[in-house]
Amino acid sequence: MAGWMVDPDGGEDRPLAEINVTPLVDVMLVLLVIFIILAPVMANSLKVNLPRASGDATLSQTPLTVVLQADGAMLLNDQPVDSNLLAQRLKEAVQRDPELLVRIDGDGATPYQQVARLLSVVQAQGIRKIAFTTLRP
User: Fold this and answer.
1) Is residue 92 part of a domain?
2) Per-residue pLDDT of the chain (137 residues; tens, 9 = 90+)
3) 94 & 128 share domain
4) How many folded domains does the chain comprise?
5) Does one domain contain both 74 and 115?
């Protein structure tokens, strides 16, 4: 009988005081294997229905490019500028196109303080569309 221990001397049967954990361990190992196999499959099977849009994938406007070199020198569309001249040219460009896009190409070795100064000059001219150029890792 399951759950009862038989006395080998022919005495009375008494209840088994120990729990048999072998079936529990077997079930847990099977579940563990199932989860190990299914986890990567479930992670890669997330479905997202992206909306479709017609139109050109390219930018509708050519952005102004500001290059910030590691030594702090700046170029606006490949022309050397200082902070004052940059501010003046950006202000003129914003008056022509209020939705102006400015792309910042910064050297990776440029100190953060110089990048922050450049951003403040660009934003002070009312430009709200700013893009940063980076390389893929």
Assistant:
1) yes
2) 456 666 666 666 666 677 788 889 999 999 999 988 888 777 655 455 555 655 554 555 678 888 888 888 888 888 889 988 989 999 998 898 888 888 888 877 888 888 889 899 989 988 888 888 776 65
3) yes
4) 2
5) yes
Residue 51 lies inside a defined structural domain of this protein: no
28 lies in which domain range? 4-43
- Name residues whose C-beta falls within 8 Å of residue 81's C-beta, 6 or more positions apart in sequence: 74, 75, 89
Count of CA atoms in the C-beta half-sphere (13 A) of 29: 6
Q: For residues 31 and 77, what is the distance between their CA atoms, to the nearest angstrom? A: 61
Q: Does residue 137 lie in a domain region?
A: no
Q: Which residues of 82-95 are buried (b: 16+ CB within 10 A; e: fewer)?
A: eeeebeebbeebbe
What gap in Å lies between CA 15 and CA 31, rounded to an integer?
31
122 in the same domain as 76: yes
3-state class (DSSP) for residue 64? strand
pTM: predicted TM-score of the whole model, two decimal places: 0.54
